[in-house]
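#struct-help
A.M.: can someone run this one for me? Single chain, 169 residues.
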Amino acid sequence: MREEIINRVANSKLKNFDLEDYYAPGTRIEIDVSQWLMEGLVLVESRFRESVKTTDFSVYQNHHVALNCSTNAIIPPWAWMLLQAEVSSYAATIVYGTLEDLETEIYRDIIKDLDLSHFENLPVIVKGCSKKPVPVAAYMMITNKLKSVASSVMYGEACSSVPVFKKPK
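D.P.: on it. Structure tokens below:
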């Protein structure tokens, strides 16, 4: 006699949460300001302003942009402000930093507005491996947010999850 195979995971209260589902569409790009510096190191105000003024930032329409400098140049705050003012007319998101900083900021904006009430008092597994670049900071942010509603938070897959948080009884 054959025993019926029962999917206990599918029949449980366990809920999955996949950060990859919230990956914001759009091209990510890094703009390195060293290209507008003398020898990549020295900011000459008139030259910098002219370079920024003559750059076609419309190519970054709806892009997510990270502004940074790959050299050890000292860039005054007004230069970043000038770039922000120009690029913001086109870009969907602009941050000072790396592409990982950019991805973190995008996820921060998404996670802060998430309604997680449907996870109220339920065990939640935050899916691990993803095909898209989900920063570690996003896992930390969603854990913090889920702690306020879920009965428990785990990481991984149902077959091999790692307990992260359990609400005290």
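A.M.: thanks! The longest strand covers residues 28-32.
D.P.: also worth noting: Residues 99-112 form the longest helix (14 residues).
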